[in-house]
Amino acid sequence: MLPGHPSGYQHPPGYQHPSENQRSLRSEVSQESLLLHGPFARKPKRIRTAFSPSQLLRLERAFEKNHYVVGAERKQLASSLSLSETQVKVWFQNRRTKYKRQKLEEEGPDSDQKKKGSHHINRWRLATKQSSGEDIDVTSND
Question: What is the DSSP string of 58-114?
Answer without folding.
Answer: HHHHHHHH-S---HHHHHHHHHHHT--HHHHHHHHHHHHHHHHHHHHHHH-TT-GGG
